[in-house]
Amino acid sequence: MRIAAAIELSEEEGKKLNRLSSSRTISVGLHQRVRIVLMSAEGKTNKEISAELGLSQPTVSLWRNRFAEERIEGIEKERPRGGNHGGRNSEEQQMLRTRIIEATTQTTPSDATHWSCRSMARAMGTTHSFVNRVWRANGLKPHLIKTFKLSNDPKFEEKLVDVVGLYVHPPENAVVFSFDEKSSIQALDRTQPGLPLKKDRSGTMTHDYKRHGTTSLFAALNIASGEVVGKSYRKHRHQEVLKFFKGVEKTVDKGLEIHIILDNYSTHKHKDVLEWIESKKRIYLHFIPTSSSWLNLVERFFSTLTEKQIRRGVFTSVAHLEKSIKNYLDTYNENPRPLVWTKSVKEITEKVGRGRRALAEQN
Q1: Within this chain, do residues 222 and 320 fall inside the same structural domain, yes or no?
Q2: Most buried residue, 126, 132, 269, 285, by CB count within 10 Å?
Q3: Residue 56, domain extent
Q4: pLDDT tens digit string along 256-267?
Q5: Are residues 238 and 341 in the same domain?
Q6: What does the pLDDT look like over 88-147, one tens digit per residue?
Q7: Residue 50 is assigned to a structural domain of this protein
C-alpha cells in the first residue's frame, strides 16, 4: 500500500504559501498546487484533497511528492506540459512524435475505425494532451472524414469543357440555366413547441417530429442574373420535368437560345422530354459528367435553401412546406446575385488526376 508523502512546513514556508494562496495575481495552476501542499500539511489524504479541489488523485500525488522533494521551488517553476515528457530529451520526444504521426496515418486501433487522443496515448505510453498537440501541429484530425466520388464517365473531360465553357464564356443571344430537382423534401412538424432564442440560451426544438409527406422542388438558376425559376411538385416523373421545362421556356424571350445544364437522371432523358426539346429548336441540353453534382451551380442554391428555410422549419402540411419554399423563392429573387464560376478546366482536371493517381497507389 502506498503511503502519501508527509508534509511538514517550516514557519517561513507556511507564511509564503499562505501569502500565495490569498494572492489574486498568480496563475490558477500555481494556486491549485499551493492549496494541495497546504491541505497536505493539514494531514488530509490525497483522496480528500482530490474531492475538495476537483482534481485527480494522481495530480494531487504528483505535486505533493514534488514539494516533498523540491519544496516551494518545485511547485513554483513551470514544467514542460505532457506529464512524463518533462524528463525526456528532445531527441526522444521527436522520435515519439514521429511514431505518433506514422501510427495515426498508417494504422488503426484493433477496436475502432480511427484513433482517439486517449487510445493513441495508451498505445504510445504517453498522455492524451501530448498526442493532441502533435496532431494539431501536423494538421491531423482522425475524427473527421470527407466524402468524395471520382467520375468514371468516359466523356468526363468533354462534358467538363462544355459546362465550364457555358459558365465562363456563355454564348451570345442566349440564356444559360443550371437545373436540378431537390426531391423528397419532408414536411416535418415537431411534437412539441420549441423555445425561442434569448440571452445566454440558444433556441430549442424537439429531436422527434411528425411526418406530413414530401414534395420535390424543381429549380433552374439563371447563370447571368442569379434568379431562380422554381416550382414544387408532389411527383417526380418525366411528366413533371417536361411541364417544368415548358414553364421555363415561357420566361425567356423568343429570340434567345436556352441552354440547360443538368445531370443524367433518367427522367431528364425520357423520349418525351427529348422529343419536345428537339421540336423547340432553340433549347439545348448540356449533361454534366456522372458523379459530378459539384459541377451544377443550382446545388449551391439548394444548399442555401436547406440551411435558411428547411432544416429548422416546422411545417404542419405539405401545402405549408410548399408555401414556405415559394415565399423563400420570391424573397430570393428580389435581390438575386449571380454565382461566379472560378475554377478553370485545367485546375479541375489536374485535381481529378491527382485523386485518380492516389486511388491507384492505394490499390
Answers
A1: yes
A2: 126
A3: 11-78
A4: 999 999 999 999
A5: yes
A6: 457 778 888 888 999 898 898 888 899 999 998 888 888 888 899 999 989 999 999 887
A7: yes
Render pLDDT for 237-250 as a digit per residue (tens, 0 to 9).
999 999 999 999 99
32 lies in the same domain as 103: no
User: Is there a single domain that holds both residue 346 and residue 211?
Assistant: yes
257-262 and 174-190 beta bridge pairing:
parallel
Question: Is residue 151 included in any domain, yes or no?
Answer: no
Count of structural domains within the chain:
3
On whether residue 332 sits in a domain, the answer given is: yes
pTM tops 0.90, yes or no: no
Assess whether 128 and 225 both reside in one domain: no
Any residues with CB less than 8 A from the CB of 78 and at least 6 apart, and which? none
